[in-house]
Each structure stands twice: as C-alpha cells, then as structure tokens.
Design goal:
Strand content: 15-25%
Order of helices and strands: EEEHEEHHEHHHEEEHHHHHEHHHEEH
Oligomer: single chain
Strand order of the largest sheet: 3-2-1-4-6-5
Shape: globular
Radius of gyration: 21 Å
Helix content: 25-40%
Number of strands: 12
Distance between the termini: 28 Å
C-alpha cells in the first residue's frame, strides 16, 4: 500500500506499539496524510505471549515486523520516522511525551511499583523495539501525562503529607491519551478551540474513567494512584471505603494479594451479576434478570454522581462526551446516565441517541444548553501525533 508523500527530505510514518503483559497491539500511521484522510496503513495484535508459539515480546515484535514486511511496509523502511510507545505510568516526572534514552528507561523502571502489571510490559516493548531499530527516535507517551495539570488540591489525598510524598501517593489518573483526544475532538465538533471549551469526558469501556477538562487542561479525573478508583468498571470496584480492605483482612482472613484480586478482577459488573459485558447485561435485563438490573443501576448511579460532581468542579459545562466501547455503543447507558438532568441544561434527543455510527456526532437536542456527543476515541492516533511532533524537533 502506498502512502501519501511525506515532508520533503523526511520520513512521515510512525509505528505505535502498545505492549501489554501478554499481548502487543500495533498500528502504522502516515502522519503526512491530510485532514479527513485515513492515515492508518496497518494494524494488528499479537496475543498469548508466553503461553504458546509466541515465546516472548522479542518474538512478538519480530512477528509484527514480518507482518509489516508482508504488506510491503517493512519495519526497516526509510519512510519510518519514529516509534511511539504507550507507557501507563509516568509518575510526577513524565508529564509530556518523552524521547526515550537509557536514563528514561531506568526512570520508568523505578515507577514499576506504581503500575506493576503495566509498566514492565511497556518497558519490554521499548527495549525490544530499540534493539530492532536503534537508529530511530523512540518516544514514550504516558497515560498519566494529560492529568498532570490537575491542581494540587485535587491531586492530593488527605493523608499524612510525609507518608504521601515518601511513597508517591497522589491522584495520577489514566486513559490520558483518550481523554486528550476526545476533549479536543469535542471542541472541534462544536467548531471551537479547546481553550474555549469545558468538557466532561466519559471513557466507558471494561476500564472506565471520567475527567473534567477546562479549556484544554484536565482539572480532575476519577482514577487515582491506580486505575482502581472511580467509576464502576467491568471487573474493578471503583470507589470503595478503604476500611473494607481492613475488614476483609481482619475478619475475612484474606491476604493483601487476595483482596487485590477481588477488587481488580472479581468486582465491578462481574462481581455484581456475573457478567462484565454491557451487551449481555442489557439482554438479561430485558428478560427480567434482577441481578443484571441492579448491576446496571449501580453502574449508572456512580456515573451520574461523577457527572454532577464534575459539573460543580467546572462551573460551566459546554459538552459531555461519551467514548470507548460502552460509551460509543450503548444508547441505554447514555440515556440512563443523563436522564432527568434537564435542570443542568442537559437534554438528550432519543432519536439521535439511538443512531449507531463510527463518526463523532451530537446526540443532544437543539435546545440543550450542554452539547452531548459520542466521539470514537483514537489513542493510537493521539500517540502517533505526539511521537511525530517530538521526532521532528
């Protein structure tokens, strides 16, 4: 597949790698593609790393290289400008896309205790990619970076300051590339600059988070030190009285690891009704399943609380944007979350809400003071844009 011509004398393609613990997602994008042009040249996923034929991340990256070669888009192509890596946790040090060096890799390794399931896999992907293309700029784009603008009074937890500082305990937030992309796209949908718009972004997938974005800068987000805090999710509990942990340890005799597994993998929608797929929950509700209905109601109640809270935080809300798997595809969730909020200036058009589509669109009424939008997220494009911009400096 041929790509649009890049800048004179310079390559224009960016390979985006999202290296997980047992998988590597990739996309190859041409950043010279103009507005409205599909810049995606290739995309794929290598799964079950370490469980079968794919022994490790080195093997996975070589499979990706072979797949790209097979499409005439070789990893060794002179048109490849840079490689962008998703890194989940950047702590307080990494607040913007960062050119990767040995020192940067070492600093990301020091952050592993804050993201023990994610950062090690991200680091592995970085190391293998640097070995395969040591000549290319490689850029780390951090999930936490977009939320680094949260003011100190919102980022701090009300615990002993010395203890918090010693162990780097504060609100970091996650899904940052999605919140950045969607908040900017919401402004574009309204025909305004990001600096002119206040947006509540609701990233609702198996993992779910909300953010309050004022004039293009995040001022509050629902996830905290880890991705466990906040909204009810597919398998995560979200907000919880911390004393529940003490109770389970003292009375239930559970270990820290067992409680960790309970709250992260056996809670949320799954823990409430046995399903973490909103489509299946909807089907069960239609059949009169009470457990599914209660799980849905708990999910919606938490979501509405955050919408109300972030309306207060922002003072003026110009748009509410739904994104990710549930946010983009569940009309029932969008309707229930915003039902009865007319006093906040929020009115959803039932016909518009029921329409399915892949493009960003408004689902609010023409008289709604607050625009309500469905905006498909594109984290890979956000990473590619940040990577390409840094590589061109």
């Amino acid at each position: 597949m041929s790509s649009p011509a890049g800048p004179v004398g310079g390559p224009s393609r960016v390979l985006v790698l999202n290296s997980g613990s047992s998988s590597v997602k990739y996309q190859l994008l041409d950043m010279a593609a103009g507005p409205g042009t599909d810049s995606r040249l290739a995309a794929g996923l290598v799964e079950r790393i370490g469980e079968g034929e794919v022994a490790d991340h080195d093997a996975a990256l070589r499979i990706i290289a072979a797949e790209l070669n097979g499409q005439g888009l070789g990893l060794d192509s002179p048109e490849l400008a840079a490689v962008g890596h998703r890194v989940v946790h950047g702590g307080t040090r990494f607040t913007e896309p960062t050119l990767i060096t040995d020192e940067v890799v070492a600093a990301i390794e020091k952050l592993v205790p804050l993201a023990p399931l994610h950062n090690p896999a991200n680091i592995t992907g970085i190391k293998v990619a640097r070995e395969l293309r040591p000549d290319l700029p490689q850029v780390a784009v951090f999930d936490t970076a977009f939320h680094s603008t949260i003011p100190e009074h919102a980022a701090r937890y009300a615990i002993d300051t010395g203890t918090a500082d010693r162990y780097e305990i504060r609100r970091y937030g996650f899904h940052g590339t999605s919140h950045a992309f969607v908040s900017r796209a919401a402004a574009e949908l309204l025909g305004k600059e990001s600096s002119q718009v206040n947006v509540i972004v609701l990233h609702l997938g198996n993992g779910a988070s909300a953010s309050a974005v004022a004039g293009g800068s995040c001022v509050e987000t629902s996830m905290g030190l880890t991705p466990l805090e906040g909204l009810v999710m597919g398998t995560r509990s979200g907000d919880l009285d911390p004393a529940v942990v003490f109770h389970l340890a003292r009375v239930g005799g559970m270990t820290v690891d067992e409680i960790d597994t309970l709250l992260n993998k056996r809670s949320g929608l799954l823990g409430l009704c046995g399903d973490n797929d909103m489509r299946e929950i909807g089907r069960r509700m239609a059949e009169g399943d009470k457990a599914a209905r209660l799980a849905f109601d708990i999910y919606i109640h938490r979501l509405r609380k955050y919408i109300g809270a972030y309306t207060a935080v922002l003072g003026r809300v110009d748009a509410i944007a739904f994104t990710a798997g549930v946010g983009e595809n569940s009309a029932a969730v969008r309707e229930a979350a915003l039902q009865g909020l007319e006093t906040l200036g929020i009115e959803v058009d039932a016909v518009r809400n029921a329409v399915r589509g892949h493009a960003a669109r408004l689902i609010s009424t023409d008289t709604s003071r607050v625009a309500v939008a469905v905006i498909p997220t594109d984290e890979e494009l956000e990473i590619a844009r940040a990577t390409y911009a840094l590589a061109q400096r």
